[in-house]
Amino acid sequence: MEIKELELTISEVLIDKITIDEFESIIYQDFYVDQIKSNNFIKNVITINYRNKNWKKELEDLIRQYWDTKKYLGYSIRNYCLKLIETDNPDIIFNFVDKIAELNIKYDYEYETLMQFYFFRNELGLIESGYGSYSIERLIEYVKTYAKKYINTYSFDIDIDLLLNLEEDFDKTYKKNRKVIEHNTAPHKLNKTKTDKKWFQFWKK
Predict the structure, then answer these.
(1) Residue from 26, 128, 116, 41 nearest 80 by CA
(2) What is the pTM of this model?
């Protein structure tokens, strides 16, 4: 039970729900300190230097062994979303969009949240080729809106399947526009890749 409680406390400090000072006041209690010799996980948590700039990475590496794949995926997406909404630089924004979209390969295009970012990445390519449904400025607005929705929805007690399958209203507008473009545009002009075809199949559902 103490590991579960500690896991929750670690989760809270990782998403800034509690401060480092509050976190340290918990883990340095006698209850945990007394278990240093008998519990390696507790020992590793306590011995991290939380004044070091790398403390969060070290703590993430430790807690990862207790989180299932979906939980860690949800947390990773949250971190990317935070970084992309903090900047107005399009290159940086779409760099993080790429990082999220690429997770589709690892998770076999299973989750709608990942597919949403895959849509953003492909839409950027279509815009640059002259076939986009939006301007880049409008696409960035949609990216940030969706990222903020994800962050606002995110919590450690939420149904992870709900979190990994978030939908947004502008999806419907996009699907309608994309059907028109697919119907009126020659396939060789779009130069679709194998991956693009899989993406189009997804959005035709």
Answers:
(1) 116
(2) 0.74
CA–centroid distance for 145 within its chain: 14
Structural tokens at position 188: 């060789």
Alpha carbons 52 and 159: distance in angstroms, whole number: 33
In the chain, the number of structural domains is 2
Alpha-carbon distance 194 to 183, whole Å?
18
Single residue among 66, 86, 106 that ends a domain in this structure: 66
Encode pLDDT of 34-62 as tens digits: 999 999 999 999 999 999 999 999 999 99
Give pLDDT tens digits for 70-85.
Answer: 999 999 999 999 999 9
Task: Print the domain residue range for 129.
Answer: 69-203
Q: Burial of 171 by CB count in 10 Å (0-12 exposed, 13-18 middle, 19+ buried)?
A: middle
